[in-house]
Hints:
- The protein has helices at residues 15-23, 66-83, 109-116, 151-162, 175-198; strands at 27-32, 35-44, 50-64, 94-107, 121-122, 125-133, 136-138.
- It is built from five helices and seven strands.
- By secondary structure, the protein is of the alpha/beta class.
- It is globular.
Amino acid sequence: QFPADGRLVQSRMLEAHRQELERQGYRIVGTLADGFVAARSKWHWDCMATKISTLVLVRAVADVDAPTILADRAMLTQNATRYDASALPRGFQKGRALVTFYVAERATPDAIALASARPPVDFASFSIAGISEGGRGHFYRETPLFGGIYFSKFRYLLGRLVEPTASPDDEPLSVPGVALTGVLAACIVGPFCCLPVACI
């Protein structure tokens, strides 16, 4: 279980990552010997007005392999409710992202394959991994059909963690999300706009 005393990580290697996440509105909710856990809950109006709670584990390690990623993912899952006390239940305009990110000297082929593969999707929940190996970023860069409206957000987060000292930029809008939100709004508002005409 992650400590939740709010202490900042002492590792200078991860200081830029902490600062970048805090710039994006995350707060540090736990520390480890080699990393930290950050959390953020945010409404994304461009994603069909969905609230996404994101829990990010960042670790600095010499080596990372797939079993390590899966074990950390399970630990995040066990602690997710503790760090996300929102009364809004998952699935009711509410999603969750569990992100494990590693600043590693070496990554095994199975770790790179896991990070680069399409993330598994549970009920309104995404489990995502990323690796910075000697400055090279390994993470899923495509947009899947299911849940695709959120993946521009996830790619932005992982890209910033790979290069936390790059010039700050804003989180991108979700183009598929904006399109779907517009269609939904038209379906809801459209019939009411036609009422005055029908009454003439």
